[in-house]
Amino acid sequence: MLPAYTPSPTASLFGGGKPIDFGITLKDGKRLLGDGKTFRGLISGTVFGLIVGLIQMIMVANGFTPFNIQLPGFGETLLGSVAVIFSLSFGSLLGDLFMSFLKRRLKLERGAPLPVIDQLDFVLGAWLLVYLISPVWFVTHFTYKIIIILLVLTPLLHVSTNVIGYIIGVKKEPW
Ligand code: CTP
Ligand code: MG
After folding, report:
1. Which one of 23, 69, 75, 89 is separated from 40 by 20 to 30 angstroms, measured CA to CA?
2. pTM (whole model) above 0.85
């Protein structure tokens, strides 16, 4: 999950500048995505997620077992592994973009909280894209049990990192 968890905080740290929707407002009077979704956030987030995944890949290839935990790999081939890592990373930000689109349609301003969705959009985006790109990898690593554990743990992790982000001043809201 690390390549899927990295992009959001990275986007908060390095995001800003040109919005992905180029400032477009739809007929409902609300922005397509809003100023909280920027190219810099999307690119920096995806790149950092990729870097984290590649480091994990190198660890797995070298048989590194931190705390005696056998790390799962991203696939059999280099290309396949990179595709999985990219899907986790980029997919997480796609999920976040999609939910911002929905939030604007619900007339929620940038930064307005949408509980549960805010905490899980990136996980669902990552899973969906990785499932489309590599269904076999997804079903072998994400059993029902793991999916349930992640759906419970991720919001807790998300809220705690966002509170830290809020305290250190890189997030405008603590959610
Ligand atoms: N960010 C970005 N580009 C992205 C995603 C996030 O620049 N693709 C940055 C923005 O500065 C954003 C911050 O990360 O404000 C926090 O992300 P998020 O909470 O997803 O955005 P919100 O500002 O809350 O906007 P929204 O209501 O659309 O979720
Ligand atoms: Mg938000």
Report:
1. 75
2. yes
